[in-house]
């Protein structure tokens, strides 16, 4: 016979086992519910995991930065390298998507010890995709230069865009190797060290002399006579840090050029003694001051207009060159008598365009559709808005854009708005001219817009014009539209 104690213990054990079984059943039920909810949650939070690799690959392509940070693509905080760190699926898709690796930009000095490995890995992942390659720095000094050179030459047949910023000796070394660029369309070469123009190569660089698809060239510190190119086929050209003679030589070498930009410096020659040059094919011409320091002082850049004529010019841009004589610009436009459609005048911050003759022949032509003025002087602004009330002034004008400077002691954008309301409204309603479709007043980044916000009455005409369908923007370039 079992004692009462034994019976009690057995009863307690049985009761505990029953409770454990019940808890296990409950736990099993909770786990099943958790798994079901987790599957639903995963599908909601990570819908990309349900997409086919082709769609994920397309999404990844849109993740590539528009502008490379520090001009270097080897950045683990940006695509494509960032995509390799998320999960194994993303890594597989990214590595099997060649176009993610089709843009290689390396700053040699920042990655001196591993440039060769990076180039080989990156270019191999790109497969047969058209490549965009940018290399800045002393290439010949990197470790395993031979391996790098082989990897580069192996892929030159896929390079569509090439930008080299290298020392002169490196360019000569590269020129010694025979390479083909059958699909190269865009070539940019700059020399490090700001070598003087009288201390260049004994012979012109030949490695790009037979590039059948080359269409666009940008040369920095490298005059045109020091590189062999198929000049006749070029349509777009930029020459940076050029003397007047380099500019005129470039224009003579490229009779089919339609777009051209020059950063000009000159210190000793009398440009009025230069032989005049006409270029009938030119459609867009820009004079600009380079953001980098030139080997010689920049001077007289816009005076280049004295020696050229572009009878079919449609766009003229003067970017941060404020040294022109108003009469020289007037004579250039009159002499060329171009069907000019767009004019952009962007002087340095220290001065605004008062040096544009609004009474000139250009502003009486129906071809002119767009005027863009940067940092306009107050008297010019007042004169401009008085002129647009007249239907003989730029009768084809459709877009006006004023970029305003920023100074702590004034709100230039507010001043333009105060002047512009009634004249712009009148112009919009004016008979016998093209309808004004766009009016922009763009304040410099960092401008305090409180004065603009307070111009309730002055902004009202622009609100009405916007409601009518006109493209109106009044605000900072890094801010919202106040209209």
Automatic annotation (TrEMBL):
Keyword terms of this UniProt record: Coiled coil
Highest rank taxon of the organism: Eukaryota
Record has Coiled coil as a keyword: yes
Gene3D superfamilies membership: 1.20.1280.50
Coiled coil: 13-40
Protein name: F-box domain-containing protein
Species for this entry: Roridomyces roridus
